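Appendix B, record 7
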Amino acid sequence: MAKKYDPLWEIVGQKLPLQGTEVDVDALCPVCHVSLHVGAAEPGQNVDCGLCGAGLLVVERDGVVTLED
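Structure tokens (predicted):
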């Protein structure tokens, strides 16, 4: 069975996924147009832009993840 958590982080009691096992999804902020890493954020989840601070909503349409303000 392959490990899915980083064993070094498990030593300190944190379960962090091994690099490359997490979903890698990026979307553009509709306010400042910077590319944001939303990772495994689910549609309907709120995220904040790290550059402009806008509160955004994760939306999926036709299999494409986008952000709306």
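Remarks on this record: The chain has a mean pLDDT of 84. The helical segments are 7-11.
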